[in-house]
Specification:
mainly alpha; two-stranded antiparallel sheet; 2 strands; elongated
Length: 110
């Protein structure tokens, strides 16, 4: 597999690609939806809720945390996760600006 040359793209383009990559797996989408649904921190019941093995859930949580969409805190032997509201607002703004682009040309061009 070739090396991606992310340095030749703008910061905005790299940010959009990172967000899309994180949203590109249905388990991550399900985790985010569950966190919004319960509207609180979750400490370990994601395995039952999502239906995947603990190591798999942990890997998806790692990706979500790396992007900053979720944040975690240690409570005893559990790590609790919740949506980082400030980062979520930022992600929404980036994706909304990207998706609201208009071509400005006739749709009959192709």
């Amino acid at each position: 597999m070739g090396i991606t040359k992310s340095e030749i793209f703008t910061e905005e383009q790299n940010n959009i690609a990172q967000i899309a990559k994180v949203f590109g797996h249905p388990a991550r989408v399900a985790i985010i939806q569950h966190l919004f649904k319960i509207d609180s921190c979750v400490c370990g019941d994601l395995v039952n809720e999502i239906g995947l093995a603990q190591p798999t859930i942990s890997q998806h949580l790692k990706e979500l945390k790396k992007l900053g969409i979720i944040k975690g805190s240690i409570e005893g032997t559990s790590v609790c996760y919740c949506i980082d509201q400030d980062k979520w607002k930022n992600v929404k703004q980036i994706i909304t600006q990207f998706l609201e682009q208009e071509t400005g040309i006739n749709n009959d061009c192709c």
